[in-house]
Amino acid sequence: MATVTRRLDDISPKEPVIAPGQTYGSITDLVNDVVDQTERPPRFWLAVFGIGSLLLMLLLNAVGYLLIRGPGIWGINIPVAWGFAIINFVWWVGIGHAGTLISAILLLLRQEWRTSINRFAEAMTLFALMCAGMFPLLHVGRPWVVFFMFPIPSTTGMWPQFRSPLMWDVFAINSYMLVSAVFWYVGLLPDLATLRDRAWRRWNDAPPPERKLADRIRQIAYGMAAIGWRGSARHWHRYEMTYLLLAGLATPLVVSVHTIVSFDFAVSVLPGWHATVFPPYFVAGAIYCGFAMVLVLMIPIRKVYRLEGLVTMNHIENMAKVMLVAGLIVFYGYLMELFFAWYSGNTYERFMMQNRLTGPYWPAYWALILCNVLIPQLLWLKRVRTNLVVLFIVAIFVNIGMWLERYVIVVVSLHRDFLPTSWGAYHGTFWDWALYLGTFGLFLVNMALFLRFLPMINVFEMKHLLHSKMPQPAKGEESR
Amino acid sequence: MTAAVETSPRVYGVIAEYDDPEHLVAAARAAHEAGYRKLDAYSPFPVHGLSEALDLRRTGVPSIVLIGGLVGAAAGFGLQHFTAVINYPLNIGGRADLSWPAFIPITFEIAILCAGFAAAFGMILLNGLPRPHHPVFNADGFDRVTRDGFFLCIEAEDPKFDPESVHAFLQSTDAKSVSTVEHSYDVAQS
User: Fold this and answer.
1) Is there a contact between A162 and B106 if contact means CB atoms under 8 Å apart?
2) B90 and B42 belong to one structural domain
3) Residue B186 — very low, low, confident or very high, per pLDDT cuts 50/70/90?
4) Mutate: best of A237, A458, A469, A475, partner B, most B CBs <10 A
5) Residue B85 belongs to what domain range?
6) A266 CA to chain B: closest CA distance, Å?
7) B91 in a domain, yes or no?
8) What pLDDT, on the 0 to 100 scale, is given for residue A12?
9) Residue A363 lies in a domain
10) Which residues contact A480 (CB under 8 A, 6 or more apart)?
């Protein structure tokens, strides 16, 4: 097990997980000042919030028009009944998984570099899941009767079909959303108490006319959210156990969720979907895309909020390495799909693969290979992993590539299945694109609000990490 | 115990602040060795060695999580069994009503969901939270506990509690400051 528990910063000790010179107080200020000191948010924030709000309006329009006219405004048809809605659903869920991976699996593996990115990545998980959850909901066509999918005794006298992977999905996504939210809140609890106490201190220190209403409101709001956390040793004792258990529970959960998402495809009999490699290949794809998204968000944010001392190049490089490994597993998945199609000896399987490579949608497949397989090979070079601009671009390519992957899986497999008489074609319409771009609005607005009102880095864990990194000679001399 | 409470009913305890976690752990260990039992340490992050110093052992959380997980699994499977076998069996190609392998994914998800909720809410409730106010918040400078303050409080309920001797004891542990914590905020500030 030694290799597993070896920390990444042991391998490259020159790149620390916290920059030198930080103290408990300075870490607290560095992170929390963003939330409660800045009078005006930086331009970057205003831009994100502004663009996000515009896209959010697009989303509201797309959803509103959809509810009036029905899914006919989309490009979906028979045979391609699963269009953008399912592609985007899988894409967003996959992005969400990186958050849980960083917070849970890396915690269990004692990768302490996760500490400065886990809060942020978990927030990303929640917001990505909100976006993902919208798509199946809207894809059912009549979202107001979506309660048919829940096991509620109703006048229909019927129950959901629990043998269907689509029902498994309903339970998997909802459980995942709730457990992620709880995990996130438990992690936030001590930091909410910090914000409460900072607001109280400033409100208390200021002379009476200076007492700002804003600080009072902060104190009450964060105080209620912190439910009276007081850093008691007894509380910490249970807290640490709880956090470890939640991580232990979230780890199989995240793997099971994307496995079940892949079952939506793999349990069917359609060539291109019916493959045993799907669960691991989907999970790796989710990690791949999610880490790319964390990089896309983290690279500008650490610059704007001057968090280079807490999110060091070491973090960036480690994320790039995880991305590279996940990308190679995904590549293996692509190779296996090719191999299965050939080795099955099945006419339809072979035709599906030939159609994928050379059929009407060939540009999507080869663009996916370019984005997901070829370009990320640059990550073998340390120069690329430590060059923020290049890394940012590579991460964007991976996000596009993973979207194309789902496009290929959904559209290309469906449009030509067994009977040539029932073949068809599919293209996203304006409303498909509007809904997809609109979910970026939901995501960005949520992200902007998170950056503004909550500490984006887990402050108490950073202090804990700092304590463990401090030189300890004083311990032996002074305490005894 | 009653004697201590009678001497000053308004006093919650005596609190000492330390510069760093090492001093806090040493002081907590010394206090425990000196026979104080009703005491608690407060810190901005979980300090290693503090639980041992205060002799905190079982958290009670793991058993709650286990119960939560088992109840969730039973409920998840029970739901599917009831709907698919008892209440509305559907004959699909003569396949078994109790097609249990197809029920496993949902059983698993519900089990994790219940275990996760049991862990989080179990921890919060065992900790006596939510409790927006607590006498220890009256201590001078206690807002630093979520920043860089390390505190040890010996409570008046301790059988060995005596304001004078506790003060003296805490002074002897390299404390940065030692003060009395009142039950009421107004008294503490006046």
Assistant:
1) yes
2) no
3) low
4) A237
5) 61-126
6) 14
7) yes
8) 39
9) yes
10) B26
Query: What is the domain-level CATH number for residue B19?
Result: 3.30.70
Q: How confident is the model at residue A38 (pLDDT cuts 50, 70, 90)?
A: low
Percentage of chain B exceeding pLDDT 90:
26
Question: Are the C-beta atoms of residues B13 and B165 closer than 8 Å to each other?
Answer: no
At residue B153, the 3 state secondary structure works out as strand
From chain A, the residues in CB contact with B20 under 8 A are: 474
pLDDT digit string, tens, across residues A299-358 = 998 888 888 877 888 888 888 999 999 999 999 999 999 999 999 999 999 999 999 999
Interface confidence, given as ipTM, is 0.88
The amino acid occupying position A5 is: T
Q: What's the whole-model pTM score?
A: 0.88
How close B94 gets to chain A, by Cα (Å)? 15
**Which helix or strand (DSSP H or E) is residue B182 part of?**
strand B177-182
State the pLDDT at residue A13: 42
Report pLDDT digits (tens) over B6-15.
Answer: 445 688 888 8
| Among the partner residues A171, A228, A249, nearest to B133 by beta-carbon distance | A228
B145 part of a folded domain: yes
Please compute Rg for chain A using Cα positions: 24
**Residue B151 to residue B23: CA distance in whole angstroms:** 10
DSSP class per residue in B7-55: H-TTEEEEEEEESSHHHHHHHHHHHHHTT--SEEEE-SSPPTTHHHHTT
Cα→Cα distances A237→A28, A419, B42, B135, Å: 22, 63, 11, 21
B46 within a domain of the structure (yes/no): yes
Which of B99, B126, B153 corresponds to the end of one domain? B126
